[in-house]
Amino acid sequence: MVKVFVTSVIDAPASAVWGVVRGFNEMPDWHPLIARSRIEQGRPQDQIGCVRDFELTDGGRIREQLLSLSEFDYSFSYCILESPMPVSHYVAALRLIPVTDGDRTFAEWTAEFDTEPGQEQEMAQMIGQDVFQAGFDALKAHFGGRA
């Protein structure tokens, strides 16, 4: 099992950052790799079990299912159902923690998954940097900070 753990500090209150990332169908609004997204079967985007089907800017397609959502903890988790990436049993979580010193946000994005032998390092690097860190950098830019 591969584990990826990426953290960042965003110069904005956790409630404001949560307002941007909370929407399971709204990644195209803030993540640079996501071109389009839709929730299947017209379900609400905050309903546990809903499935988002999104297209990447490179044309790839990923389907993910919302596993948990906590307004209190500013967190959600999801799993990948279909992906062009060679991963299986993929479960990820995004969590925001208020930093009271300066009203900032500590952001944590984690994932665990299996992949083909010999691809562990490559997939961990790609997900950690190209997906998670790229998302955090975009959020920093959105809130007027440096990526």
Q: How many strand units?
A: 7
Structural class: alpha+beta
Helix content: 10-25%
* CATH second-level architecture: 2-Layer Sandwich
Mean pLDDT: 95
**Overall tally of structural domains:** 1
Corresponding CATH superfamily: START domain
Sheet with most strands? 7 strands, antiparallel
Low-confidence stretches: none
CATH class: Alpha Beta
- Gross geometry: globular
What gyration radius follows from the Cα positions, in whole Å?
A: 15 Å
Order of helices and strands: EHEEEEEEH
What is the CA-CA span between the terminal residues? 30 Å
The order of strands across the largest sheet is 1-7-6-5-4-3-2
Tally of individual helices: 2
Write up this protein.
The chain contains two helices and seven strands. With 147 residues, it is of the alpha+beta class. A seven-stranded antiparallel sheet has the order 1-7-6-5-4-3-2. The longest helix has 23 residues, at 120-142. The mean pLDDT is 95.
Sequence-ordered SSE layout with sheet pairings:
Blueprint: E1 2-10, H1 14-21, E2 34-39, E3 51-56, E4 61-70, E5 75-82, E6 87-99, E7 104-115, H2 120-142
Antiparallel strand pairs: 1-7, 2-3, 3-4, 4-5, 5-6, 6-7
Give a quick precis of the structure.
By secondary structure, this protein is α+β, with helices and mostly antiparallel strands. It has a single domain (2-142), classed as Alpha-D-Glucose-1,6-Bisphosphate, Chain A, domain 4, CATH 3.30.530.
